[in-house]
What we know:
Layout: H1 3-8, E1 12-24, E2 47-50, H2 53-67, E3 77-91, H3 95-100, H4 114-125, E4 130-134, E5 141-145, E6 155-162, H5 165-170
Amino acid sequence: MTLLDALTELPNISFAGEFWRVVHGDRSPIDGSKGAGRWNRRETEVLYCALERDGALSEIHFHITRAQPVFPSRLVSSACRMQGRFEKVLDLTDMALLVRLGVDRNRYSEMLYEATQRIGEAVGFLGFEAMLVPNARHDSTNLVAFPDNCDLDEIEERAREGVDWKAWRARGER
């Protein structure tokens, strides 16, 4: 069975609720990620979000600290509480399902993105608006939305709060 066949056999769900997205500076939280990530290749834009605030912060913190040896002291980040509605969503939070789709459970938190990018590309190609996936840095769930497949007017920023990275890191989150 091909990946596309396997994904089309999964139940389509809807999602309506709150989620979090961390942005830097005055960037809009509805601007998609343009670089390659766990669930997208460089040419596919996605919105990486998390259902929990600390889930979103953990993901961003990982990428900031891997890119430079010293955490930037002047980084201005905001945690944006978002509200959205997606009618065509795939729930891929079951790690056993991801393993059947080709993901290595034991290496999920590593930056080995080939299998997950193939899945993300297939989900986007099939026209899904979003997918729910395990967060690799926090015990929570991420929401990955495909801006080309969804109505961005159904996503709104409800609140924006500055991130005190020093205080957050002192709490031992990561």
